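anyone seen this seq b4? input:
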Amino acid sequence: MTKPRVILKDQARYQSDEIAARAGEIVQDLQMEVRGKTVFVKPSFVYPSKSETVKGIITQPAFVAGVARALRDAGAGKVLVGESSVLGPARVTMAAVGVIPLLKGVAEPVFLDEVEAVEVEVSHPFVQERFKVPKIWLEADIYVSLPKIKTNMFAELTLSIKNNLGLLRQRDRLLYHDHRLHKKLADLFTLRPPDLVIADCIVAGEGQGPLMADPVELGLMVGGNNAVAVDVVACHLTGYDPLEEIEHLRLLIEAGYGPGSMDGIEIEGRDLLSRGRPFRRPMTALSGLSPRLRVFEGTEVSCPWGCASMVRGVMDAYIQRDGPEGIQPMNVILGKPIAEVPRDLDPEITLVLGDCAAPYQDRGAFVPGCCPRPLDIGLVVRRIMGPMKVEIDFLPAIAAFTRHNLWRMGQRLRGRDLPPIENHVNFFRVVKEYLQMSAIQKKNQK
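predicted toks r here
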């Protein structure tokens, strides 16, 4: 049996022309036939910002534009770049990262919360029998995944398989986002494995990913036509064992979707593997994070793939800014069963998180769900902890939010069904927090 090929390319900077050239070489070397075809490209824009702080967190817009140009130059009939969002409409995310102007004349942006979604069945599910996915993703002739390689407290690593989760709307994304998340990822992958993966490893991310990953400059693009093989190579570059540490990879390897070791892969640019090193693993524990944070956690169920990591990801930002001793006092109740919750807890500074903790919902601000919406968790924590700096350009974001609402109005006037509003940020609240943070920073500078 022919081994799948993975190609490593030396690429030191985010320069679209250079990236287009390297991506074009990958497409040609893999003998990908794209001429006249519709190509759907999926980046990862989990943190909607173009700040320097997100270089190791999101697929960089210059990278996306470079790959899109390579596909167009290879003769693709149409290149579509699609993404969803967990922090508002997809239009806002794509505007905030600054990718839309870079795609002009090269590719068409697709906002996945504005396109038709269809329900599909999984043939032999590990956990999830059905998914509601974008019809445009299924109908495209070629599917290209552009993941950002980084650590992830929910799934250990974000790889091309994890990148698929961004195809789902929030309600579907949060289903089984618990101890069954890896099985869900494997099920989603089987619906349509990518035809091509080109991973952004120019700057990768380690530590508290997905949202607080620290940059690691690898200077690499990693491509291949077998997603499992590309992800195995990414594991090698970051010091992970794909079979022992990444459950969704192990499940897919055992199901025959790709090789389980480097020996089963034909690697071009093997000398570039020396740039890899063991990445710092994400930490999900809440207990001991700060003496000002009291945690009452279930002894049997407290999912590091769900509630625990959801709140840890929010708390990391405050700990980084204020230090363990400097944050505001806060209590968190989550998981089950919980041995004891003191009666004297102040409900004004208490977060009761997830369906498992529902028996204590009267003890503070209760955020239901399994797992709960990240936005709802963030709103409670910000009320208790105070405002946090917003790394987003307001004018493009507000303009995109307005265009999304105009789109919804047009759909309603045409009598068409509208997708639910599941995760929209209240921009008035964001602006208020921004002004509060600006005032605080000015005061501290005096």
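The longest helix spans residues 394-413. The two ends are 69 Å apart (CA to CA). kinda curious what u guys think
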